[in-house]
Specification:
This protein is an alpha+beta fold. 18% of the residues lie in helices and 34% in strands. The protein has helices spanning 31-38, 44-52, 124-135, 161-169, 171-174, 246-253, 300-305, and strands spanning 2-7, 16-22, 29-30, 56-58, 61-62, 69-70, 75-79, 92-97, 101-106, 142-143, 152-158, 175-185, 192-201, 207-210, 217-229, 232-239, 276-284, 291-295. Strands 8, 9, 10, 11, 12, 13, 14, 15, 16, 17 and 18 form an 11-stranded mixed beta sheet that branches. Strand 15 and strand 16 (232-239) form a beta hairpin. The longest helix is centred in the middle third of the chain and has 12 residues, at 124-135.
Length: 316
């Protein structure tokens, strides 16, 4: 099946002319041979030129490999007028994109969104916005949630106002699962448990728990110890609520602050960063309501930090 889509952009951009086919055959093929069969009137040099210049992609991923495998159901696309726009940045990687949402892997030390005190500092929002504007200057980007500057991992933006409003107004119902992994100082005694408190913030922007029922907002954090070693605990956290600095505060109040989190009591910075990573994000798609789940591996440096020769995974 072939589809020919035209996308009109401003004059400084060429008009996209994209041809696409879904591989309906049962056998796996190779990219260049597949396209040559679909476009018998085009020369081999034309096909190689498009391939070399990043004008071919398979299931949304640009490739320059002539022998890239094409399995049944794969979508093959060619942009006849210009290379496909690709998000390339050392501190942010594209995980998923459709017409309404975009999910990225944000590096630690990168602001989620610019602030008044950091107007000139590039943020994840700036990087993603530039990327979608290169696709089409009319594209817009909307913020739906944030990660702390020094927290790495999965983060989502909306590409339509409808998607943003649906997520913002129904966040607790639509976000089905959020898992974080962190390195905590010391050995957490319990293998599993939860922390529940009301969180509020002082004038120095430090969040803390309060016993005053008239202050703060309820926060519930669940934890599961994955491994212990080298004076650290590798812990997975899941959130029943999403409050500012929630995991950082609750980890500190457990007596095991996150490694590198000087703000909340860490004594050292073993990996020279705040060791908190947003690993899993599962939600109902704001438009289609499809169940969407994205998961990143535990950072290798986190894993290596708790490795000890001949020690038990879980110590008393």
């Amino acid at each position: 099946m072939q589809r020919d889509r035209h996308h009109q952009t401003k004059n400084i951009f060429r008009e996209d002319r994209i041809l696409s086919w879904t591989n309906e055959g049962p056998d796996e093929g190779k990219l260049l041979a597949f396209v040559a069969e679909k476009m018998p009137d085009r020369s081999r040099s034309d096909l190689k030129s498009w391939l070399r210049h990043g004008q071919m992609r398979v299931d949304g991923t640009v490739t320059t490999a002539f022998d890239a495998p094409i399995a049944q159901g794969n979508l093959v696309e060619i942009n006849l007028s210009r290379p496909f726009v690709v998000l390339r940045h050392p501190r942010l990687q594209l995980v998923y994109e459709d017409n309404d949402i975009i999910v990225v892997n944000k590096g630690y030390g990168l602001l989620s969104v610019g602030t008044q005190s950091h107007k000139k500092e590039i943020s994840a929002y700036d990087i993603v916005r530039e990327y979608i504007k290169m696709q089409d200057p009319r594209n817009k980007l909307f913020v739906v949630h944030r990660l702390d500057r020094d927290t790495s991992g999965l983060m989502m933006f909306a590409k339509s106002q409808e998607a943003q409003e649906n997520l913002r107004h129904n966040w607790n119902n639509m976000v089905l699962d959020r898992l974080y992994v962190a390195l905590l100082e010391g050995y957490v005694k319990e293998d599993k448990g939860f922390i529940k408190s009301r969180l509020t913030e002082n004038s120095q922007f430090v969040v803390y728990s309060t016993d005053n029922p008239d202050e703060g907002k309820l926060a519930v954090t669940n934890f599961n110890v994955l491994k212990r070693g080298n004076g650290l605990s590798l812990v997975e956290f899941s959130l029943d609520t999403g409050r500012k600095n929630q995991i950082r505060v609750h980890a500190s109040e457990m007596g095991h602050p996150i490694s590198g989190d000087r703000k909340y009591g860490a004594k050292e910075s073993r990996l020279h960063r705040l060791c908190l990573h947003a690993r899993t994000l599962r939600f109902a798609h704001p438009i289609t309501r499809k169940d969407m789940r994205f998961e990143l591996p535990v950072p290798a440096k986190f894993q290596n930090a708790v490795k000890t020769s001949g020690s038990r995974d879980k110590q008393d």
